[in-house]
Amino acid sequence: MWDELILLWTIKLLLEQEKEIYVSAYNISWLKSFLSQFIDVEQINFLREIPKWFRSFFRFVRDKSSRTLKKYKEVDSIIIWWWEILTEETPNSYWYRLVSIRPCLRKKEKPNVYLMWWVQVPQIERNKRLFKYLMKKVDYVYARDLESVYELKKYWFENAEFFMDTSYFAYDWKSVNEKNVRQKYIVVNVNKNGEQFLDDIVQDVKYYLSEWYRILYVPIAKWKTGEYSDTYYLKKIKAACKKDDKFEILDWEENFWKFAEKLANAEVVISTRLHLFLISNFLWVRTKVYPYQKKILKMQEVVRNINVMDNE
To answer: How far apart are the first and last CA of the chain?
Structure first.
C-alpha cells in the first residue's frame, strides 16, 4: 500500500520536470489500476520487472523480454526505492536490488543511480561485497531517516541526505483530516512479520469489543491462501474473539479516498505494518503499532519530529 504512494509522488515530481518515465513493476495491470485514481497513467511507460525467481521469469519471457531489456538499457537515470531497500533484516536484499538494475548498467555511458529510503551498511561478508559494488554505481542517496545518512557517511559515502518519505506529499491528507469525526470503530491489520504479537493484538481487540466498538480489518497483502495473506490473521482473531458479526473488511485498493476518510474517523489504528501506521499518523489518528523491524522504530522517531515541527 505505502510503496504505491511513494511511487505516486515521485511520478508527480518527475512529470512536473517533463521527464519520460518508465516504471518497473511485477503486476503492471494492478499498478495501473491503482495509480489511475490519482494520475493519467497513459503518461507513463510500464516495464516488467527484471526476474529474480521462477515466477517473475515466466512473466518476463511472456512479455517479450528482449524488447523489455532494450528499454531498460535506454534510460539515463534510475531511482531505486523500497522500504527495505538494503537491509540484512530482509534476506537477499542486496543481491535483489543489484539484479534490478543490472540491465541498465550494461551500456557504455553509465546512468545516474539514486537510492531512496532505508540503507543499512551490511555486516555479512557476501553482502559487504555486493554493497561495495553497488555503492560504486550510486550517485546519490536520499534516506528517509537520519541514522541511514550517518551510517553511510561513516562508510565514507558522502552524497547522502535526509529526505522525508515522498508518500508524505503524495496525498491531500489535510483535507481528509479536516472532515475527521471519531466514530465507534477501530482499524486493525496483522501481517506475517508481526505474527509474534498476535496474542497481544487479540487482547487489544477483545478490550474494544467489550466497549462496543466495531472492528474494521484492513487486508493489505491479499494472497489467495496461506499465512502470508493478511486475512489468515483475521480468521485467527475472529476465532479467538468469537464475535464474527462485529468484524468488517476495510478495503484500501478500490477507492483510496473513501479508505482514507474511513481511516481518519477511527478511534485507534492497531497495526504491525509500517504502511498503515504512517498513513494513520498523517491523518492524526491515534495509533498502536507493534514493531517487528527496526524500520518501524526509526520512522516513529521521524514522525514524532514532524509532529513537533507542525505544532510549533
So the answer is: 30
